[in-house]
From TrEMBL:
The lineage of its organism: Eukaryota, Sar, Alveolata, Apicomplexa, Conoidasida. Residues 218-257 are annotated as: Disordered. Its EC number is 6.1.1.4. It comes from Toxoplasma gondii FOU. The keyword Transmembrane helix does not apply. Keywords: Aminoacyl-tRNA synthetase, ATP-binding, Ligase, Nucleotide-binding, Protein biosynthesis. This is leucine--tRNA ligase.
């Protein structure tokens, strides 16, 4: 029998601590041991399956928050169980030490939250029993005409659990789906789960490498010898002494392999994956079985009304979805939308494949930027005739390769304006920059070629792709005939575009690099004599420029001071400070003095030296005056390109726009230049390497094709397509304007293979953004094919096998033809059933997405719909609604900040309904939204009190009256109707914050105000029940659980609230006059309170000039009485202004409120009667006009411009005398017309009264 472990050993083993610990590790071990003997008992017993292993009581609450999910079998399709035999403590303590310490403190009391959670659990169980969200297309003619609403969300990627960002965008579709259901429509609201692409496989392979690396380190000693597994006391002692040093060595080894980034193992731990389960994720298929069930669980707990029968996992794991994607691409191929050819493509060097947006860790939306690289040839003979000391390092490097034959050496400069080469006076280098001397080909090994279509493309794709031209140093020296001097970054891009040979790395994990003869500083290049193609000057020199970026272009900048303001000012700086530049950079006068700007392009209004002219006009001081230089650059470049006329060269007399490409092609033909591409901005792949632009053979979608683009543009501009945001619509127009070919094939990752490559020697995967453009159509039939199995491993209710789903079958189902497929073994009635589902639900009515997908996925979707259904624009998407990213408490959500919230954790902390309310309140525009914990926590209390109020109202615990309705009842009912209508308008406009304001916050405020209006008479039972029902219905789209609970369990309504209609009221039930009366009462109370506060301050010895302060022992007399003055009409001047304002145009703004343009100011200003007034009266008139049109119009609409109120204001106030008295704490209050004075009042207060603005005077009774 094995000896019992000591408490210290048990702790060390349980928490995977090494036998020898660093000082910090030893402190951790002692801290764990100090948590008491019960912990040791727990750890010891965990090793024995026959003994119970209870979690210590002190950890029970934390364990419930951090309990790990069990490891599902790799091929199991069932979701992870809620229970687990794995002890949760290791994860718990890691969480305590790193993450939970940074989290905000939880509220002390959890009773209200727990009650809401129990309500949510019960309601979700009822929904699961009754399946209200599973709706099929009607089969009978009687119901076929029922309106439908089909909404969707871009399926989330399954490389982790869903978080608050997913929840925010999902909510914006969810709220609309529930709202539209209440409008009497059939709703289709499905959700697929995305696994296509590189990230999952890249993470799995990365984890696999880390596991192999760790195993190798454990099996081998420091010098690689096999470690013996026999430990003596002496070895233990030595290890204990050197433990900390060994730990550092191991850490440095891993860091050398992985860099400073977290290892995949650490990332998995940070995701809450139990350490014992992490190794299983080295199999990419395990991700597909693990995360999708968790996503379904979290979305269901969030209360989303998803039809899960239609859910699916992408990739060929689901054979039905795989068949659908193959049909889509076969159709695109037949329609000529797919092409094959050598393209300039953003490449992941490590993965050796195109790196699309979804494959990137940073740089999403970045594409290749094309330059022309011009060779500035080194004049070797001239350099030898006039040797310069700072050139010696360069000379020595070039001497070393002479044995391999003469090689042309050139500084290569990248430019966007090859047509300006005639005006070169010099080139610039960065003195502190590092430049390499790279062996190069005169004729590239790759070139951009014409696209192949159809079978030609399929045959060409069979050839093996070579991304790098690998050579030994000897081969490269013998083969290359040129040497390029440029930055390392640009050389890497050139190598993948066929211009430079590459050298294989000795380390198998390292990537190949271009053959570099050596590096020199920019200082060593200053003064080099160069021959510049097309230049007027036969020799130009390299000069220093201090603002060059080595991360853009080649690090060498050609200088055309006539047309480039930066070049001109840099040259002037050198000329103006010759001594400084000679001493600092070795610049000689003969390199600068003879060179003046050359007139090459004439621009109307700017002349033949536009940069010189504008720099002088705008008084640019130096090359550091970046703002002015940027403004001049934009002006010169724009006018020069469109209006400029060349003055020199074979194209003299032609417009720059016409000559640019001609001049570039001439340079390329003479081998003095070449086309060069690099990423517009840095792009980092998820595998960690910085991407380059490579020339590679690609299958690509020809989005830039003219007719296709024009079709999409026309649809975007039509009334059929909506975005509910001018900014979003503008973005779509912009993207369609620049979007061109999109590489859609990959060699690495998960997904569906291009059909014609699947059985070839080089099968090609479809890129993840390209196979996710029309899958919404698959939702329509998924439930009939898959049998409620997201993996598609079982036949659906129609009993169709995947082998039966031919392209001809899909053609019929998706309305490509009306003819039933010949030879199909699927019964005709089943085919018609699928066709009926598609035709009923399509088109897609709404797609909600983050704004970042405008630049790819959403625009691709429009293109694909136009290609698949070219003659059926009635089947194209109807609306795209986009939102910004989510922040938490005005900070970016991040694990490093400790404010990262998963949906799972958010529900536990706030409840589903409170999270949904806080997300609705977070924001509605494309600006980043702000989820506030304070709002979520406050909502817990609000919803809890709502449920309590409903219970008390229905049970009789709340005193309510019955009988006839009072004025207060009528006012309150009108406010209920008003809030309901305004909430509806907000939902329709996707203004969920406004819907929440009207449907929850204002509804509660109006109820509380009604209670005050009623006073001792109590609220009316009918009004309270009406309010409760309406409150549940207006809030149900956002907080469905609590509303369903009150509706069904407290109000005892027979049907589910999710199936109820939006509240309706009799026609003309909304009375704007009653609404204005209600607002007048509320506003009057607020104004009167402020007046009373000032009066009390005055009585207490306030700040009135000359007034003596009241003695401290003498109390101020109480203001117990008041007189309210009411004006029947405005003073003559204000009546005059209102009459004029009635002529001004008014309209409803985006927020639904009435507003006016600036025209009203001109109407008032230009009136003869107003102009005849004195200065003070005119000022008063303009101020009144501004107030009415800015504030009153927004509050009351057009009635704010009426000369009289549409009701008796004096009678209104008198009828609510008791409410006003109680609100102001008065014994008596009287009401008088403003033209009658009260005997107690000698103030001017009564003259302040205006219609709708009564004044008040307080006095001591």
């Amino acid at each position: 029998m094995a000896a019992c472990k000591s408490a210290g050993e048990a702790v060390r083993d349980r928490f995977h601590l090494p036998s020898t610990l660093s000082p910090s590790g030893e402190r951790l071990r002692r801290a764990l041991l100090a948590l008491s003997q019960p912990l040791s008992q727990f750890v010891s017993s965990a090793a024995s399956p026959s003994l119970p292993s209870p979690t210590p009581k002190r950890f029970s609450s934390l364990a419930s928050l951090r309990a790990p999910l069990p490891l599902p079998a790799v091929l199991s399709r069932s979701p992870p169980s809620a229970s687990s035999s794995a002890a949760p403590l290791p994860v718990l303590f890691r969480g305590l030490s790193s993450k939970m310490a940074a989290a905000p403190a939880a509220p002390q009391s959890r009773g209200r939250r727990d009650k809401l959670l129990s309500i949510e659990e019960a309601i979700q169980a009822r929904w699961a029993r009754e399946n209200p969200y599973e709706v099929d297309a009607p089969l009978d003619a009687a119901n076929a005409e029922k309106k439908k609403y089909f909404c969707s969300f871009p399926y989330p990627y399954m490389n982790g659990k869903l978080h608050l960002g997913h929840g925010f965008t999902l909510c914006r579709a969810e709220f609309q789906a529930r709202f539209q259901r209440m409008q009497g429509k059939n709703i289709l609201w499905p959700l697929g789960l995305h696994c296509t692409g590189m990230p999952i496989l890249a993470c799995a392979d990365k984890l696999k490498r880390e596991i192999a690396m760790r195993k190798a380190e454990q099996d081998c000693g420091e010098n690689g010898e096999k470690r013996e597994h026999v430990e003596s006391a002496e070895n233990n002692s030595a290890e204990q002494q050197n433990g900390e040093e060994d730990a550092k060595k191991k850490k440095s080894k891993v860091a050398a392999k992985t860099g400073n980034a977290k290892t995949q193992w650490e990332i998995m731990l940070g995701m809450g994956i139990p350490e014992a389960e992490i190794a299983a994720f080295a199999d990419a298929q395990h991700w597909l079985r693990y995360f999708p069930p968790l996503a379904k669980r979290d979305v269901t707990r969030m209360g989303f009304g998803i039809d899960w029968r239609r859910s699916f996992v992408t990739t060929d794991v689901n054979p039905f979805y795989d068949a659908f994607i193959r049909w889509q691409f076969n159709t695109l191929m037949k329609r000529g939308k797919l092409k094959f050819g050598m393209r300039a493509t953003i490449l992941s060097r490590r993965e050796k494949q195109a790196c699309a947006d979804h494959d990137r860790a940073s740089g999403e939306g970045v594409g290749p930027q094309e330059y022309t690289v011009v060779k500035l040839f080194l004049q070797g003979e001239k350099m030898r005739e006039a040797p310069v000391p700072q050139h010696q390092p360069l000379v020595q490097l070039l001497e070393a390769v002479k044995a391999y034959g003469a090689k042309k050496v050139s500084l290569v400069a990248a430019t966007l304006r090859p047509e300006t080469m005639y005006g070169q006076t010099n080139c610039y280098v960065l003195p502190e920059g590092k430049y390499g001397l790279y062996l190069a080909f005169t004729n590239p090994k790759k070139s951009l070629d014409k696209a192949e279509e159809g079978d030609g493309g399929a045959q060409a794709a069979e050839s093996e792709e070579e991304f790098e031209t690998l050579m030994t140093r000897e081969e490269a020296l013998s083969t290359c005939t040129e040497v390029f001097i440029c930055s390392e970054r640009s050389a890497l891009n050139m190598a993948y575009q066929g211009w430079l040979p590459m050298q294989a790395a000795e380390d198998p994990d390292a990537l190949p690099v271009p053959h570099c003869l050596g590096t020199v500083d920019g200082m060593n290049l200053i003064g080099l004599p160069l021959t510049a193609p097309n230049a007027t000057y036969p020799t130009i020199y390299a000069l220093p420029m201090l603002t060059i970026s080595m991360n853009k272009g080649t690090g060498v900048v050609m200088s055309v001071p006539s047309d480039a303001p930066d070049d001109y000012m840099a040259l002037q700086d050198i000329k103006n400070k010759p001594d400084f530049f000679k001493d600092r950079y070795g610049v000689l006068p003969e390199w600068v003095g003879p060179f003046e700007p050359v007139a090459i392009i004439d621009i109307p209004d700017l002349g033949a030296l536009p940069a010189v002219t504008l720099c002088k006009e705008k008084k640019v001081a130096s090359q550091k005056d970046t703002q002015k230089l940027q403004e001049i650059k934009e002006e010169v470049y724009k006018k020069g390109f469109y209006d400029g006329v060349l003055l020199v060269g074979p194209c003299a007399g032609q417009k720059v726009a016409d000559a640019k490409t001609v001049i570039r092609d001439q340079l390329i033909e003479r081998k003095e230049a070449f086309r060069y591409f690099e990423p517009e901005k840095p792009v980092v792949a998820r595998s960690g390497d910085e991407c380059v632009v490579a020339f590679m053979h690609q299958w690509y979608l020809d989005y830039g094709e003219e007719k296709w683009r024009e079709t999409v543009e026309a649809y975007i501009n039509s009334e059929q397509f909506q975005t509910f945001s001018p900014q979003v619509l503008h973005q779509f127009k912009h993207v369609v304007g620049w979007l061109r070919e999109w590489a859609c094939s990959r060699s690495y990752g998960l997904g569906t293979y291009l059909p014609w490559t699947k059985n070839s020697s080089r099968p090609v995967l479809i890129e993840s953004l390209s196979d996710s453009t029309i899958y919404m159509a698959y939702y329509a039939i998924a439930h009939l094919l898959q049998g409620n199995d997201m993996y598609g491993q079982a036949k659906g209710p129609l009993g169709i096998a995947v082998e039966q789903l031919t392209d001809e079958v899909f053609d019929y189902v998706f309305a490509q033809t009306d003819d039933l497929p010949k030879g199909s073994t699927i019964p005709a009635e089943h085919l018609k059933r699928m066709r009926n589902e598609f035709e009923y639900w399509y088109p897609l009515d709404l797609r909600v997405s983050g704004k970042d997908l405008i630049f790819n996925h959403l625009t691709f979707s429009l293109y694909s719909h136009a290609a698949i259904w070219p003659h059926r624009p009635d089947l194209w998407p109807r609306a795209f609604v986009c939102n910004g990213h989510i922040m938490v408490d005005a900070q970016k959500m991040s694990k490093s900040l400790g404010n990262f919230i998963s949906i799972e954790d958010g529900i536990k902390e706030f409840t589903a309904d409170a999270m949904r309310v806080a997300l609705a309140d977070a924001g509605d525009t494309t600006d980043d939204a702000n989820f506030q914990r304070e709002t979520a926590n406050g909502t817990i209390m609000r919803l809890y009190l709502l449920e309590q109020f409903a219970n008390e109202a229905v049970s009789g615990a709340l005193p309510l009256r019955t009988g006839r309705y009072s004025d207060a009842d009528r006012l309150f009912l009108n406010e209920i109707v008003t809030c309901t209508q305004e909430a509806k308008e907000a939902y329709e406009g996707f203004q969920y914050r406004e819907a929440l304001k009207k449907g929850l916050y204002e509804m509660h405020t109006r109820r509380d105000q009604y209670r005050l209006l009623c006073g001792e008479d109590h609220m009316h039972k009918d009004m309270v029940v009406t309010w409760l029902k309406t409150q549940c219905q207006t809030l149900a789209p956002i907080a469905p659980h609590i509303c369903e609970h009150i509706w069904s369990e407290i109000l005892k309504e027979p049907s589910l609230i999710v199936s109820s209609a939006w509240p309706t009221f009799p026609e003309h039930a909304q009375d704007p006059v009653l609404h204005r009366q209600f607002l007048l009462l509320l506003a009057s109370v607020e104004d009167f309170r402020r007046t009373k506060d000032k009066a009390v301050q005055m009585l207490s010895g306030g700040k009135k000039k000359g007034q003596q302060p009241r003695p401290a022992d003498q109390a101020a007399p109480a203001l117990t009485h008041a007189v309210v003055y009411v004006a029947k009409e405005y003073p003559p001047l204000q009546q005059q202004v209102l009459t004029l304002l009635q002529k001004a145009p008014i309209h409803k703004g985006e927020d639904g409120a009435w507003c006016a343009g600036k025209e009203y100011m001109d109407i008032v200003k230009n009136d003869e009667g107003i102009n005849a007034l004195d200065k003070n009266a005119k000022k008063e008139a303009m101020a009144f006009a501004s107030f009415q049109m800015r504030d009153e119009l927004k509050a009351y609409g057009r009635s704010a411009l009426d000369l009289r109120l549409p009701f008796d204001e004096l009678n209104l106030l008198q009828s609510h005398q008791r409410y006003l008295q109680a609100s102001l704490g008065l014994t008596e209050i009287v009401f008088l017309p403003s033209d009658e004075a009260h005997p107690k009042d000698d103030s001017p207060n009564r003259k302040l009264a205006k219609p709708g603005k009564p004044s008040i005077f307080f006095y001591v009774g």
